[in-house]
Predict the structure of 5'-nucleotidase SurE.
Amino acid sequence: MRPKILLTNDDGVYSNGIWATYQALSGFADVTVVAPATQQSAVGRSISIFEPIRATRIAVDGAPAWSVGGKPTDAVIIGLFALDLKPDLVVSGINIGENLSYESIMTSGTVGAALEASNHGFPSVAFSLQVWDQGDKFDDPRHCGSSFDEAKRIVRDVCERLIARGFPSHADVINVNIPSHVQGGYEVTRLARKLFHTGVERRLDPRGRPYFWINGPLVEDAEEGTDVHAIRKGNISVTPITLDCTAGAAGADLSSLFE
């Protein structure tokens, strides 16, 4: 029996990244693509609860897929509960641009989709590919200039390992970040605190009214053992993530505060 994989993303169903992943996985698994109809980067785990969600059967280069008019989380829910898919693994990506640090995974639609799947009991893994030109993150994902050749090999290897050997205990999602030029091997990492130096640029529109752009350069590096540092070294960062956001170490201090 070939394993069953639900494949989604946040760059949209026509992104080069998701179809690179499809090519990597369809050789050994039955892959069903259920992904947002349009670009949905940085929406996190947001969900459509105030409007209907439309899902349309399409074909991309002859391969069938479902185009979902909603968020990555919506696509996962449609796949699991409307289409009644029962995947052995849920895969999100390949995202165009890295998803590293607390900061990034809290807003990432790629990781958000994987977290949603895990919340419903399905093992899930998110893949992201580092880009040197940050503009690639905001260009049309159907025409990304990055090469996915090495990333496809890594995607297949990781997924085959997870399916053959079982999902690691105490992890809900495996977050995999692939450097644009792989110089080392796999490195199991923890999340760094930040990926960007956040800034805000104030501008004026043609009528003289102010508006703002959130911007800021990438963090140059982070401490040893973090996902940011691994990618800067050229290693493939593999980070276990848990849905449980409870800060257990703060319990004693908090209890004393409310005595």
The first strand starts at residue 4 and ends at 8. The chain has seven helices and eleven strands. The chain has a mean pLDDT of 94. Helices lie at 16-25, 72-82, 101-107, 109-119, 149-165, 227-233, 251-257.
